[in-house]
Design goal:
Helix content: 40-55%
Radius of gyration: 19 Å
Number of helices: 11
Strand order of the largest sheet: 2-3-4-6-8-11
Low-confidence stretches: 5-39
Mean pLDDT: 86
Number of strands: 11
CATH architecture: Alpha-Beta Complex
Order of helices and strands: EHHEEHEHEEEHEEHHEHEHHH
Number of domains: 1
CATH class: Alpha Beta
Length: 296
C-alpha cells in the first residue's frame, strides 16, 4: 500500500510541521482552521459518456482543495480509466470557479488527520509512480496553483479558461516544487521558460501558459470543460489501440529523463525541507510578512 500523495507529501508534511510551529509561536490557533476545514466536504466523482470518463473535482467551497479522500477518489477514477478497455479517453475538470488551490494541508498532516492508503497498482495522480495508458485532457479555470499544475501536467492536453491563474510558489515558502513540476515544466516549456517561472515563483495567466506550452488551448471562461469534452470525442473517434500505443511510444522518449528526476528527489528533499529557510518561509506566511531568507 502507498500513502496518499506520498511524493507531494515529502514536501507538504514538512510544510505543515513548520506551519504548526510558526502558528504556535505567533499565537495563531490552528483549531479554528481545522474546524472550518472539517465543516466543508468535498469529493471527486466520475461520469461515463460513451467511451469517455469525465472525472470531476467537486469542492468549490474550499477552492477545490484536495482532502486525502478526494485524492484517493481521483486515483480510483484514473485507475478505472486505465483498466477499463471500453474507456478510451479521460477528461479531468472541476466544478466552481477554480480548478484547485492545492492540498488541504490540515486534512493531510494536521493533528486529526487520518492516513489514507492507496494500493500500489492504482494510478498516481501526479504521474510519478505510474501513469494511465489512456489520454487525459484536463480543463482548468481560475486558480490552478502548485499541485494543481502538477496534476494537470501529468496528463496529456490542457485546456484553460481565459480566467486561469497559475503559480508554482513553493520556493516562495522556502521549499521546492518536487511533485513533478521540477521536470515537466522543462519538457513542456523548455529550460528558459521553465526556470523563469520556477525561479520567479510568479503568478501568470492563461495566455502566458499557452505561449510557453503548459496549455494547448485557451477558451473563454466557462467553456473549458465543453471544449475538453469536444477534444476527447475527437480523440475517441480514432482507433483506441493506435492512440494508446502512440502515448506509450511517446512516453519512452522522455521516460528515462523523467525517472532520473523522480529518483533523485529523495537525495535532495531534506536539504530544503529541513532548512532554516523552509522554517522562515512558513513562519513569514503565518505572520503575513515578507520572508527573510539566509540560504541556510
Amino acid at each position: 500500500m502507498m500513502r496518499i500523495v506520498q511524493t507531494a507529501g515529502w514536501i507538504e508534511c514538512r510544510r505543515i510541521d513548520l506551519y504548526r510551529t510558526a502558528s504556535a509561536k505567533s499565537g495563531i490557533a490552528e483549531e479554528k482552521e481545522m474546524s472550518d476545514t472539517a465543516s466543508t466536504g468535498g469529493r471527486v466523482y466520475s461520469e461515463r459518456h460513451d467511451h469517455i470518463l469525465k472525472i470531476v473535482i467537486d469542492n468549490p467551497a474550499k477552492k477545490n482543495s484536495f482532502s486525502p479522500e478526494m485524492m484517493k477518489q481521483l486515483s480510483e477514477a484514473m485507475t478505472a480509466l486505465h483498466r477499463d478497455d471500453t474507456l478510451w479517453v479521460g477528461v479531468l475538470c472541476a466544478n466552481g470557479s477554480d480548478f484547485t488551490a492545492g492540498l488541504d494541508m490540515p486534512k493531510f498532516f494536521g493533528p486529526t488527520a487520518t492516513p489514507t492508503e492507496l494500493p500500489e497498482d492504482w494510478i498516481d495522480p501526479f504521474g510519478l509512480r505510474n501513469q494511465a495508458r489512456k489520454p487525459i485532457v484536463t480543463a482548468v479555470q481560475g486558480i490552478c496553483f502548485t499541485v494543481g499544475i502538477e496534476i494537470a501536467l501529468a496528463g496529456d492536453i490542457v485546456v484553460a479558461g481565459d480566467d486561469s491563474r497559475f503559480c508554482q510558489m513553493e520556493s516562495k515558502r522556502g521549499i521546492a516544487p518536487l511533485g513533478g513540476a521540477h521536470f515537466r515544466y522543462i519538457t513542456r516549456a523548455g529550460w528558459g521558460n521553465a526556470m523563469y517561472h520556477l525561479f520567479l515563483c510568479d503568478e501568470f495567466k492563461a495566455q502566458e501558459a499557452y505561449r510557453i506550452g503548459l496549455v494547448q488551448e485557451v477558451v473563454p471562461a466557462g467553456q473549458q470543460i465543453e471544449r475538453a469534452m469536444e477534444i476527447a470525442n475527437i480523440i475517441a473517434s480514432n482507433a483506441p489501440l493506435g492512440i494508446q500505443i502512440t502515448k506509450e511510444a511517446a512516453r519512452k522518449f522522455i521516460e528515462a529523463s523523467e525517472q532520473a528526476a523522480i529518483t533523485y528527489v529523495p537525495k535532495i528533499r531534506d536539504r530544503v525541507l529541513k532548512s532554516a529557510d523552509a522554517a522562515e518561509g512558513i513562519k513569514s506566511f503565518v505572520e503575513r510578512r515578507q520572508a527573510k531568507f539566509q540560504g541556510q
